[in-house]
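Ticket reopened. Same input as before:
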Amino acid sequence: MTAAIETHKLTKWYSHRSRGILDVDLVVETGQIFGFLGPNGAGKSTMIRLLLDLIRPTSGSAQVLGLDVHRDRLAIDRRVSYVPGELSLYSELTGRQLLTYLGNLQGGVDAVYRDKLIERLELDPDKRIKSLSRGNKQKVGLVAAFMIRPELLILDEPTAGLDPFIQLEFEHLCEEARTEGRTVFISSHQLPEVEHLCDRVGIIREGRLLAVESIAALKERALRRLEIDFGEPVGVEAFANLPGVRDLTVTDSVLRCTVMGSLDALVKAAARYEVRNLRSIDTSLEEIFMAYYGADDGAAEEVSHAAA
Ligand SMILES: Nc1ncnc2c1ncn2[C@@H]1O[C@H](COP(=O)(O)OP(=O)(O)OP(=O)(O)O)[C@@H](O)[C@H]1O
Ligand SMILES: [Mg+2]
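Engineering reply: fixed in the latest deploy. New output:
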């Protein structure tokens, strides 16, 4: 199947000093919800603008729906919706007028579906856009994006400004799009915002794509802190050098450590004693993620080595 998005060594320098993105190789499969995550200034919007041919790359290439983003731009435009981070809409129009206008540009849309979207996102369509709050403006952009049922939605920080209820409704819309085999590409600087929604995430920092992983794989690598309470004092030697076990301490009858990956070796070693209690504390995905984000290169490296 053709990938929804595919880039090869995609690079953008805005000037010789201003780095946009560097050598990004990314494949986003059709029918996925993909999270593109990175801190401020990482290059998320740059990547998105390149995919939409709003800016031209310094080097490298990009395809969307199997088409060249520059050469086939018109064909792509009809099949892709884009909501930019900073919406600048025709502010004198009402939401309804703008949506009608945009719908007509697309050769008409399913009005029933459009109105359903307006209702679900609780947009007041008869207010002038200039009088809408940031979140409410964002809703106009989202209705416009979803109402044409595009094959690919490219959404630059779509949840910024949405209240939790609307955010949930937005997630349902993304999930429905996926059910219909469509693809959603969402940028965000917060993993928790998208972690339960996305199938895969790409992590970008300082213009470079550091990792692309399924959420499931990220979770598998989560560290677990374990505490085992034995019925009797145990020696630390019995647990030293077990695979995946680190930060091991034993105080009398209580063992504490951190385990990455399978618990098998530790559990088998522990089974030689009476195990009174066992507590496992999952470290959050956010912690793994912050290691990628961290300014300190060492932390990111540690995580990627751990993955290998
Ligand atoms: N028009 C421009 N001219 C020069 N440099 C730019 C321009 N646009 C972006 N940059 C630079 O490119 C880098 C990436 O910016 P980009 O807007 O892609 O980041 P981002 O990940 O979208 O950040 P944010 O989370 O703040 O939206 C930044 O260092 C930024 O200063
Ligand atoms: Mg941005």
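Residues 223-282 form a domain with the Alpha-Beta Plaits fold (CATH 3.30.70.1560). Residues 164-179 form the longest helix (16 residues). Please confirm and we'll close it.
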